[in-house]
Each structure stands twice: as structure tokens, then as C-alpha cells.
Amino acid sequence: MLYSYMDRRPRLGKDVFIADGAKIIGDVHIDEGASIWYNSVIRGDIASIYIGKRTNIQDLSVIHVNTNVPVIIENDVSIGHSVTLHGCTIKKGSMVGMGSTILNGAIIEEGSMVAAGSLITENKQFPPHVLIMGSPAKVVRELTPDEVNDLKTTARHYTQRAEEHRKNIPFSPTNV
């Protein structure tokens, strides 16, 4: 379901899939081919949220902002089930594992993987192509080229799955 908030309204690119139960509120731009899965909440009420091309936000995830602190999720990113993103930036080709939390000002650089259940504290920045793990999270090691490629494969897989769902499950944006 799409909701306007004050003078802010969601904008959807071509071939976006939004699953039943997902709530998208306010200043949210979802780019071409992205997918928002079941019961996720994306709330751009006090700052903007950008979700890049072919990015997937999996079931039960929550994305929110802080005053003047947007969320930017670049192209080909996978956000796992039950992830919380708050005022952070996730660079292209990365993956955030299930149940992770990433807080205000944090930056996950290109092609990195945040392990399931990790906590990224405020204003932390991590280099590209690394495995990030723990609570609080730290770099565990560099990813191999095969692992970086696997992150891209996951994003492609979700793009294909979203296309199947989009064709077979009706969606009608309302309340915009």
C-alpha cells in the first residue's frame, strides 16, 4: 500500500513489485525493477528514501530515516528478511543478512556483506568487498571474487522472482 504524507508521496519506477502487506509512506523513490516483499515498511516521513534498480527489500524489513538523514540503497542490493535500516547508505551490489540492524550515518561500501544478526552502530563506515559481522559489527575478512559475484547472483535471483510474482499476483497502488 502506498501512502502520501503531507506533501510527500512515493514514486515508483518501471516494473517495481510491491508485495501484499508492504507499506510505503512519504518521500520514497523506488527505482526500476526493485522489489518490496511481504509486510515490509518503508517510511520516508521526515527525510527521503531511495531504493535503487533491481534492489530487493525482503519480507518484514523496516526502513526509516532521521531528520535530514536519508536512506540510500543503491542498485543490485539485497536486504534480507527482518532487517532494520535507519538513516544509512548501502552501496551497490551489497547484501545485508537477515535480522541485521544498521543505524544512522553508517555506510556499507560496494560489494560488501553484512552477516545475519549484525548490528552496525551509528556513523560506522566499512570498506568495499568485505564480510561484516557481529554486535557491534566489525570487518571479519575480505570477500573472495566468487563471493562478491554470489551477491550479484542473489540480487538477480530476486529480480526474477519479483517478475514472476508481479505477473501472477495483482497489485494496485492506492491512497497516493
TrEMBL record:
Highest taxon listed in the record's lineage:
Bacteria
Q: What is this protein called?
A: Carbonic anhydrase or acetyltransferase, isoleucine patch superfamily
- Cite a single GO MF annotation: transferase activity
- Bilayer-spanning residue ranges: none
Q: Name one Pfam family in it.
A: Hexapep
Under PANTHER family, the record lists:
DYNACTIN SUBUNIT P25 (PTHR13061), GAMMA CARBONIC ANHYDRASE-LIKE 1, MITOCHONDRIAL-RELATED (PTHR13061:SF29)
Keyword tags: Transferase
